[in-house]
Amino acid sequence: MALRHFGAAAAVALTLGLGASPALAVTEIQWWHAMTGANNDVIVKLANDFNASQSDYKVVPTYKGSYPDTMNAGIAAFRAGNAPHIMQVFEVGTATMMAATGAVKPVYKLMQEAGEKFDPKAYLPAITGYYSTSKGEMLSFPFNSSSTVMWVNLDALKKANIAAVPKTWPEVFEDAKKLKAAGYATCGFSGSWVTWVNLEQLSAWHNVPLATKANGLDGFDTKLEFNGPLQVKHLENLVELQKDKTYDYAGRTNTGEGRFTSGECPIYLTSSSFFGNVKAQAKFAFTAAPMPYYPDVKGAPQNSIIGGASLWIMGGKSAEEYKGVAKFLTFLSDTDRQVWIHKESGYLPITKAAYEKAKAEGFYKDQPYLETPLLELTNKEPTENSRGLRLGNMVQLRDVWSEEIEQALAGKKTAKQALDSAVERGNTMLRQFEKTATK
Amino acid sequence: MQKQAIFKSKLLPYALVAPQLAVVLIFFYWPALQAVIQSFLLQDAFGLSTSFVWFDNYIELFQDPAYFESIIRTFFFSFAIAVSSLSFALLLAVMADKPLRGVMLYRTLLIWPYAVAPPVVGVLWIFMLHPSLGVLARYLRAAGIDWNPLLDSNQAATLIIVAAAWKQISYNFLFFLAGLQAIPKSVFEAAAIDGARPMRRFWTVTFPLLSPTIFFLLVVNIVYAFFDTFGIIDTMTRGGPGTSTVTLVYKVYSDGLLGGNLGSSAAQSVILMILVIVLTGIQFRFVERKVTY
């Protein structure tokens, strides 16, 4: 409790501080984000360029900490009546934002009311699908998107006499055993974000549902159902391989990524946005291959789903302010600008035109693996099971799923028991969320 | 001896106490009251819809077996943290109390860790013992020890206890050292002349004379272990593996701040508050009797 109040108080203090500057003719637009390092520079440059391009509006970006921190700061500020105009929210916060009718302004409505030209079809459906209603109405503006890829240490494959990068899960398992024998004794393969990779992406990639109601996109009365044969089999495989460290669990978040760049784990599944670190640190030849699949599943691979974040527009602002926000979103959608963001940050381009342009410029010729996440996302037309996820309390939901997976990997539960219990506990949380979600 | 102060004006004493009272009311009682109110509500993260649900939040908690496990775990962790940090600090304080060359340097170095914030403590220990980031972890694994606190719950619990205790040692050390220096040297000399050996001198002279300090630190350490360790848990294990390092206060944090379930989080903090009040009450009622001031 005290924490929450402190957060609210801090948010109030901060917004008051910012608002204290004399109100000029320029309308200020607050943009809260969670980008650090090079990506923070991208944000600052975008804001500066926009501010220089016209004189009516001024976008003010503010770094608010990690993704959850930024979201909590925004929620606290909203409760205190001082929400920013634009808030960057990671993809797992989507349902929470969407449930808050009145707290947010859907992007499609914003663009309509501001009279800005806006064609939802110009954006890559694999990305916008995540942030749209089942009717195709775009709720938030996609900003930085990524997907899961399989990072491979090519030198290690050579050392273990493996001819080609594995494509299927059975091949990965077999190669990992060979790698282990070739000296990678503590970790044949591993991955970050254990639930994202091994439940969420696995299900979408094989066109298997994670939850009912199109994974929650069609309503909050969704039920989890990832305790099916595919997911259970996959977890059983991981449990079996964990025993001799052919697979070695590397944690719930991405703290284990160093095991790939240090050369300890030659095969590592994580976000495509890991690229910057790999390029900077890896002292070996590497590539980013598509996620492996089970060849006995019909129709696999399907398409992957995105990670990253989108921009949510907060409710309760004046028409003038919204006009500025809409102009800013149009500014961001510009093809050249999207190509620049793509190259600069390593995140995906969000419009079809920007993707085509990057391709035409030969951007993927030297580094074809930078296209891998895009090819995964657009591999097939998204289905109900692969359009995206929209589950309430996703941050905590993932923690609960991770807890159960850890129990299985530690040998305290069977894979089936662990997933059953993850589904059951998750459903309780979803019902809790449904009760509080504004109708 | 006259202990009572005599005020001529009737208002003056109230005026003198008022600022302190205001601080206590605004910063302690008001948030506590808010927590009690919130614990009866069901509310979404944004505060857009609120409904009064009586004791639903409490009932749900008590129907959850994991909650009881977390209570037991919290008591175990607190006990382990308090005992290990107190005994270690006492040992260090006794050693630093001796006339040594460079004793000021030792004392200063021992006090340093207290200035470190709990999440930073977590990060420091991660850099030593995290299975993929840790420097020491590499040596452990090279030595053939299967070190993986991400999957081994005993290792994870040990890690949390060690990190939390380590941070508190400095604080305890400061008080123990001050307590030791307050004991007149003549008492030791007399005991030494009587032929008592160092161990006996410690247990029969030092320890009883330190008992007020020990009692005070016991209360402070238990409260610390209950409330201030969530930063360490969050950075090191996030409650894992499984739920094996989820303590009561970490659950309050994760349900409330990460999960946006403010009602349940508030109910948990009310229970936590009651638990610590009861615990402190017990300490003052029973342990304090053994303390000689």
Automatic annotation (TrEMBL), chain A:
Its subcellular locations are: Periplasm
**Transport is among the record's keywords:** yes
Could you tell me the superkingdom of the organism this chain comes from?
Bacteria
CDD domains per UniProt? PBP2_UgpB (cd14748)
Q: Which InterPro entries would you find in this protein's record?
A: Bact_solute-bd_prot1, SBP
From which residue to which does the signal peptide run? Answer: 1-25
Q: Where mainly found?
A: periplasm
* UniProt keyword annotations, A-Z: Periplasm, Signal, Transport
Q: Which GO terms describe its cellular component?
A: periplasmic space
- Asked if Glycoprotein is a keyword of the record, the answer is no
TM helices/strands, residue ranges = none
UniProt lists the family membership as follows: Belongs to the bacterial solute-binding protein 1 family.
Q: What does this protein do?
A: Part of the ABC transporter complex UgpBAEC involved in sn-glycerol-3-phosphate (G3P) import. Binds G3P.
Q: Cross-referenced NCBIfam families, in alphabetical order?
A: PRK10974.1
Subunit structure and binding partners: The complex is composed of two ATP-binding proteins (UgpC), two transmembrane proteins (UgpA and UgpE) and a solute-binding protein (UgpB).
Protein name per UniProt: sn-glycerol-3-phosphate-binding periplasmic protein UgpB
Source species of the chain: Bradyrhizobium guangdongense
Automatic annotation (TrEMBL), chain B:
Give the transmembrane ranges: 12-32, 75-96, 108-128, 156-180, 201-227, 266-287
Q: Does the keyword Transcription regulation apply?
A: no
How does this chain sit within the bilayer?
Multi-pass membrane protein
InterPro entries for this protein? MetI-like, MetI-like_sf, UgpAE/MalFG_permease
Q: What is its main location?
A: membrane
Q: Name one Pfam family in it.
A: BPD_transp_1
Top-level division of the source organism's lineage: Bacteria
GO terms (BP aspect): transmembrane transport
GO terms for cellular component: plasma membrane
Q: Which UniProt keywords apply?
A: Cell inner membrane, Cell membrane, Membrane, Transmembrane, Transmembrane helix, Transport
Compartment list:
Cell inner membrane; Cell membrane
**Residue ranges of domain ABC transmembrane type-1 in the record:** 71-283
Q: Which family does it belong to?
A: Belongs to the binding-protein-dependent transport system permease family.
Assembly and interaction partners = The complex is composed of two ATP-binding proteins (UgpC), two transmembrane proteins (UgpA and UgpE) and a solute-binding protein (UgpB).
Main role? Part of the ABC transporter complex UgpBAEC involved in sn-glycerol-3-phosphate (G3P) import. Probably responsible for the translocation of the substrate across the membrane.
Q: Which NCBIfam families match?
A: PRK10561.1 (NF007852)
PANTHER family (alphabetical) = BLL4140 PROTEIN, SN-GLYCEROL-3-PHOSPHATE TRANSPORT SYSTEM PERMEASE PROTEIN UGPA
- Name recorded for this polypeptide: sn-glycerol-3-phosphate transport system permease protein UgpA
